[in-house]
Design brief:
- This protein has 363 residues and is an alpha+beta fold.
- Helix 5 (197-212) runs antiparallel to helix 8 (246-253) and helix 5 (197-212) crosses helix 11 (293-325).
- The strands form three sheets. A five-stranded antiparallel sheet has the order 1-2-3-5-4, with helices on one face.
- The protein is built from eleven helices and nine strands.
- Residues 13-275 form the Protein kinase domain.
């Protein structure tokens, strides 16, 4: 049972700078008054009643809190406290300050496969732990794979944003069409019963991108991307995979499997020869192979640009929506365009709900 404290969060934490914002709230750095320790405060607007379109349903926040309380692991963001007021819930989370894994890698001149594997191991260990508790993340993507800090030469991976995560109960049949098109499995698109195997499909996509700088199913539109996923339309183009080991390709092929029950589990991934070589020859091949850094840098720059562009568009839509509600013309909003507040839900419809974005717990 999730415990929500009725006290005022500011009695215990000093509010600092805004770290990120989204449809339903914002993330701020906070400092614990008693210890001086810095944390991340995830401030979420809660719907005042069932008819309201603004804010999150309290039950969905309860689910996220219960899941975070159940997944205490070195490679998963830690939940410390939860406060509740009349219209807001505040999650006090571990401050993950190292930025995104993909940004960290993009700063390097080169990266061998065995170095990339060190990060993959941490992700897989976190998923093995989660899946053993029948919990699926359902939103694995580069934006939700963070590093604990920027100082350590070998920083820890931290999985964040459990807004779409789900705890499976025995005999339950769960369906959802939420997620990010590039990273969702065919069973999500087909609205079929889901399992923790959906996370493993996402790991296959992430690994493919990490090694080549290409997204395996990416089309010119979300609709085309979804069609490519259903058709299993992907390949290992020699132009981008010339420095990739055969074991790495085999690892990906055993994850990008249409039948979810036939995919490798997180536990099986940790035993795959690419992750855990059995022979000296396998280890040597892995150590000689590298990721396509030139193309990876290009992919990551494009990804960051698209994120920024989408955020600006969302801000403009929210401002225009407010002006329309007030009966003000939107033809020349001027400085109001900069008043991007996060307490209004984006009401523009998105195909099949597959573009739903959740506020990251520390981005």
């Amino acid at each position: 049972m999730a415990v929500f404290k009725p006290e005022n969060v500011e009695d215990f934490y000093e509010l600092g700078e805004v770290l990120g914002s989204g449809h339903f709230g914002q993330v701020r750095q906070v400092r614990e008054r008693a210890s001086g320790t810095s944390w991340a405060g995830k401030f979420l607007k809660i719907r005042k009643n069932a008819c309201s379109r603004l804010g999150l349903d309290r039950s969905s926040v309860e689910r996220e809190v219960e899941i975070l309380q159940a997944v205490q692991h070195p490679n998963i963001v830690t939940l410390k406290d939860v406060f509740e007021s009349r219209a807001e819930v505040v999650l006090i989370l571990e401050l993950v300050s190292g930025g995104e894994l993909f940004d960290f890698i993009a700063e390097k001149e080169n990266l061998l496969e065995n170095e990339a594997i060190d990060f993959m191991k941490q992700i897989l260990k976190a998923l093995t732990f989660m899946h053993s508790k029948n919990i699926a993340h359902f939103d694995l993507k580069p934006e939700n794979i963070m590093l604990s800090d920027k100082v350590s030469p070998h920083p820890n991976i931290k999985l964040i944003d459990f807004g779409l995560a789900h705890l499976f109960y025995q005999g339950e049949e769960y369906r959802s069409t939420s997620g990010t098109p590039q990273y969702i499995g065919p069973e999500v698109i087909n609205n079929e019963p889901l399992s923790t195997a959906a996370d493993m499909w996402s790991i296959g996509v992430i690994t493919y991108i990490l090694l080549s700088g290409l997204s395996p199913f990416q089309g010119d539109s979300d609709e085309e991307t979804l069609k490519n996923i259903i058709a299993m339309k992907y390949e290992f183009n020699a132009r981008y995979f010339s420095t990739t080991s055969s074991m790495a390709k085999d690892f990906i092929e055993k994850l990008l499997v249409k039948n979810a029950s036939e995919r490798m589990t997180a536990e099986e991934c940790l035993l795959h020869p690419w992750i855990k070589p059995i022979t000296r020859k396998q280890a040597a091949n892995r150590n000689r192979s590298s990721i396509n850094m030139k193309n990876f840098k290009r992919f990551n720059a494009k990804r960051k640009w698209k994120m920024s562009y989408n955020m600006v568009c969302m801000c403009n839509r929210l401002v225009n929506l407010k002006l329309l509600c007030k009966g003000i013309s939107t033809t020349d909003p001027g400085p109001l365009q900069r008043q991007c507040e996060s307490d209004t839900e984006d009401t523009e419809s998105k195909p099949a709900s597959l573009l739903r974005r959740r506020l990251s717990s520390s981005s």
